[in-house]
Amino acid sequence: MPLGDSITRGKGGSTWRLFLKDLLDRCGIDCRFVGSCPHAPNYSEPWGDAYRALEEALGNNIEHEGWGGLKISDIIELKDNPAHPDYPDFTIEELLLQNRADIILLMIGTNDILNQYKLDRAPERLDNLIGRITTHSNAHLLVSTIPPNYAGQEKDLNADVKLFNSQIPAIVNNRQSSGFKVSTVDAGSKLSREDMLQDGLHPNIYGNQKIAAAWFDAIVESIRDTE
């Protein structure tokens, strides 16, 4: 289950899910993405419309839980969000129940930083989300750091990105020590300005390839741990 925001969904006709599927296919690892979102990363089309070229490239394996614009708290529970009237109400528990997965790929927090939303409590919100996922799913949860953010108009947001990312390993390690199947993936630090679209927020093809490679390494390690 790819879980997160528009970076999970993709933008500009590209998504790391395509490159990840290619890496898994080449290694003979059978993968089926699951989720309630069939929309693909064509930013010019309305939410819910499939981007046909990507749909074909993914072999119709386009499902995910990449909810553009959502913050950590929105992924925990979304209800009557005026910024996204087309989005259904849901809780993370409902998403997990509807789309059971062996591995969950979580990358979230970019919109918290973009909106400067109670950043001092962002680690607490992430810990809450991780706790609810690991309590209600037997999947191995892979939690990634987030990419750099160059979309700030009045402030360099990357100091906030780096601080948020630096707090993820401790959150994950604490859950690990309690016996939960959760690991950190450092995809975010692999990207630079050259790996982002002009909006400074979403990865371009090269950025998505780097994210896919980080996920791939973590998935392979997860599979080995179960053998």
What are the key terms here?
globular; Rossmann fold; 9 helices; alpha/beta; 227 residues; two-stranded antiparallel ribbon
**Total beta-strand segments:** 7
User: Helical percent range?
Assistant: 40-55%
The largest beta-sheet arranges its strands as 2-1-5-6-7
Low-confidence stretches: 42-50
For the residues shown, what is the average pLDDT?
A: 90
CATH topology (fold) name: Rossmann fold
Domains (count): 1
Termini separation: 21 Å
Write the CATH homologous superfamily: SGNH hydrolase
Principal-axes shape call: globular
Question: What is the alpha-carbon Rg in Å?
Answer: 16 Å
DSSP summary: helix tally: 9
Proportion in β-strands:
5-15%
Describe the structure.
By secondary structure, the chain is α/β, with parallel strands linked by helices. The chain has one domain (2-226): SGNH hydrolase (Rossmann fold), CATH 3.40.50.1110. Helices cover 42% and strands 10% of the residues. The chain contains 9 helices and 7 strands. The protein has helices spanning 6-9, 16-26, 52-57, 72-76, 92-98, 110-114, 122-136, 158-177, 205-226, and strands at 2-4, 65-66, 77-78, 90-91, 103-107, 140-144, 182-185. The strands form 2 sheets. Strands 2-1-5-6-7 form a 5-stranded parallel beta sheet, with helices on both faces. It has a two-stranded antiparallel sheet with strand order 3-4. Strand 6, helix 8 (158-177) and strand 7 (182-185) form a beta-alpha-beta unit. Helix 2 (16-26) packs across helix 9. The model is unreliable at 42-50 (pLDDT under 50).
TL;DR?
With 227 residues, the chain is α/β, with parallel strands linked by helices. The protein is 42% helix and 10% strand.
